[in-house]
Amino acid sequence: MEKMLSIAVDGPASSGKSTVSKKVAKDLGLIYIDTGAMYRTLTYEALKRKADIENEEELLRILEDLSIRFERNGSDQKVYANETEVTEVIRNADVTNSVSIVSAHPKIREVMVERQREMAQKQGVIMDGRDIGTVVLPKADVKIFLIASVEERAMRRFKENQSRGITTSLEDLTREIEERDYKDSNREVAPLKQASDAHLIDTTGLSIPEVVEKIKEIAFSK
Ligand code: DC
Predict the structure, then answer these.
(1) pTM for this one?
(2) Quick check: is 1 in a domain?
(3) Angle CA(102)–CA(137)–CA(191) in degrees, nearest 5?
(4) How many CA atoms lie less than 13 Å away from 129 in the CB half-sphere?
(5) Does ligand 1 have an atom closer than 6 angstroms to the CB of 105?
(6) What domain count does the chain have?
(7) Whose CA is nearest to atom 15 of ligand 1?
(8) What residues make up the domain containing 189?
């Protein structure tokens, strides 16, 4: 059997992971798995049910009955929580502001990692997140660590929000990104960290196609 390619993409919030991963997936015929969307979906469900997001056991019970599914939609992807589509609502500010708390619970991460590994066993994947190269797929064929300056990432979020008709101040976005960087990099379990064998790509000032090409070049050299 031909070996299936696996690509792990990690990096801080708004470093461009999902945009470039989706394009690489399309070009190389891989399945794209957005692990951040999985933590967001659980956060959304917990908030909807008015659960205590500090309470790991309560979150675990919700996760047990929650199937999180991705469905390809042209070059995009839809996210489902059980049978309900949640693609857009999981990007809301209340979810974004609570997801770091939910994703810091060790037992929640254990269940998520198990589900992510299962998905990667079935097909060639490009998976993005914070701990893919270090924890989820330590044997990935290609590991990428994407970074960009805080200013550039805040501006990307600003433009993205604008295109969705959401008004936010650049200052607030900059502060939120800094706070999330801190929480993601300093939590006890699986903090955001570059794997020793990951290729570092600084996307500041690079276009999306340029980053996609760099990743494909690295993948082809394997
Ligand atoms: O990439 P994102 O912004 O959609 O991720 C949402 C949150 O989930 C982010 O604050 C960090 C967390 N996360 C994580 O802890 N591990 C992952 N593999 C993916 C995301």
Answers:
(1) 0.92
(2) no
(3) 40
(4) 30
(5) no
(6) 1
(7) 103
(8) 6-217
Dihedral sign for Cα atoms in the order 165, 169, 174, 176: negative
CATH number where 145 lies: 3.40.50.300
- Residue 132 CA: nearest ligand 1 atom is 18
* Cβ 103 under 6 angstroms from ligand 1: yes
Rounded alpha-carbon distances, angstroms, from residue 130 to 8, 144, 156: 10, 11, 19
Q: Residue 1: its pLDDT value, please?
A: 42
What mean pLDDT do residues 189-204 have? 93
Specify the residue with its C-alpha closest to ligand 1, atom 4: 36
Q: Does residue 201 lie in a domain region?
A: yes
**Could you tell me what percent of the chain has a pLDDT over 70?**
99
Question: Does residue 172 lie in a domain region?
Answer: yes
Beta bridge partners of 221: none
Mean pLDDT of 52-63: 98
User: What residue type is assigned to position 155 of the chain?
Assistant: M
Highest mean pLDDT pick, 43-52, 69-78, 88-97, 168-177? 43-52
Binned at pLDDT 50, 70 and 90, residue 148 comes out as very high
**Among candidate residues 200, 190, 207, 59, the one with its CA nearest the CA of residue 134:** 190
Spatial distance between the Cα atoms of 60 and 73, rounded to a whole number of angstroms = 29
Who wins on pLDDT, 2 or 20? 20
